[in-house]
Amino acid sequence: MRRDYAGSVGRRLLWATLAVAPATMLVHFVAHPGDAFDFVASAVALVPLAWLIGEATEHAAHHTGPGIGGFLNATFGNAPELIISLFAVSDGLTVVVRGSLTGSVVGNLLLVLGFSLLFGRPGEVDRLSSLVSLGMVATATLLFLVPAVGAWDGDPDRHSLAVVSIPIAAVLPVVYLGAQWFQLRRHHGLHVVEEREQGWRLGSALAALGVATAATAIIAEILVGSLESFAEEIGWSDFFVAVVVVAIVGNAAEHGGAVVVARRGRIKLATEIALASSAQVAVFLVPAVAILSWAIEPLSLAFGNVEILVLGLSTLLAAALLADGRATRARGAALVGAYAAAVAVFGVWGTRF
């Protein structure tokens, strides 16, 4: 009863904070408050917008079935990150783009999964499903090595590396679709574990999805436009702000959802959310950004060597801790500690930019 009440209060709070988005737009375009305010306000505004997109997508999926529903979740579930990335590409902030994508995967693998295990109840997880998701991240990391190695002794943004990135961007979505097909066949309906008291109509869900996505586009433009000045004012690099702050903001709604589910005693579902989100970013969102960027400015997937290293180690650590299919608080603490170490590494690495 207490948990249901807390969840209800949380949802009401998210509905209320949706007002931050129009308020941010109004202040930005009328009062011109400065980049520091713009960045903080737009970052806060993105959290309830990301939640609304996820909520509307889930309601729409009830009407469309699992196939189209999965496509909607993959397409719109990462809409905030996709929009932020494309605006950053347009502004020539390629370091920000790659950093935010790296931070998103690492954040899901270490921070979200870690908090879920830490605050949830110890129990069993779906070992095979977890390994499938981690296998997708590992596959993506290995493929990213191809353009990354080519950038170790040259410009990571040169056109030849963007061309090399095309086949990688084409292969990864195939891996994602194949894994999704396997997962759906293996445990169809596994994640439909609770019924909603009252679902939205399809038209209402799609309308909410459209409005939230449009608002996200405007807020994301404000965020990206103020990022460099904000980073300079607080003494952080663009890379560090992207890999930590932007990555956490873009996934905030998913992060909170996983932890809430874990607190309700459903550690298996919480683990699925964290690992599936990391895999979705690595093998679906990253290729989508790389492909769509050609309409703006070609983007290479030449991640830095430290980014590749942290991605690889994060994947190996998560796989080692979940190899026996058990979730414990001690393992959650280890993952959170590893994320803190990753942030420190990114902070040192960020001094290069």
Explain the overall architecture.
The protein is mostly helical and 353 residues long. The protein has 13 helices and two strands, in the order αααααβαααααααβα. Helix 7 runs antiparallel to helix 11 and helix 12 runs antiparallel to helix 13. The radius of gyration is 19 Å and the shape is globular.
Produce a short descriptive summary.
This protein has 353 residues and is mostly helical. It is built from 13 helices and two strands. It has a single domain (2-192, 200-352), classed as Up-down Bundle (A middle domain of Talin 1), CATH 1.20.1420.30.
Give structural attributes:
about 350 residues, mainly alpha, 2 strands, two-stranded antiparallel ribbon, A middle domain of Talin 1
Predict the CATH topology: A middle domain of Talin 1
Class by alpha and beta content = mainly alpha
List how many beta strands DSSP finds: 2
Percent of residues in helices comes to over 70%
- Cα end-to-end separation: 50 Å
Strand line-up in the sheet with most strands:
1-2
Give the total of domains.
1
CATH class division? Mainly Alpha
SSE string, helix = H, strand = E? HHHHHEHHHHHHHEH
Q: Low-confidence stretches at least 5 residues in length (pLDDT < 50)?
A: 189-197
Percent of sequence in beta strands: under 5%
CATH architecture: Up-down Bundle
Radius of gyration: 19 Å
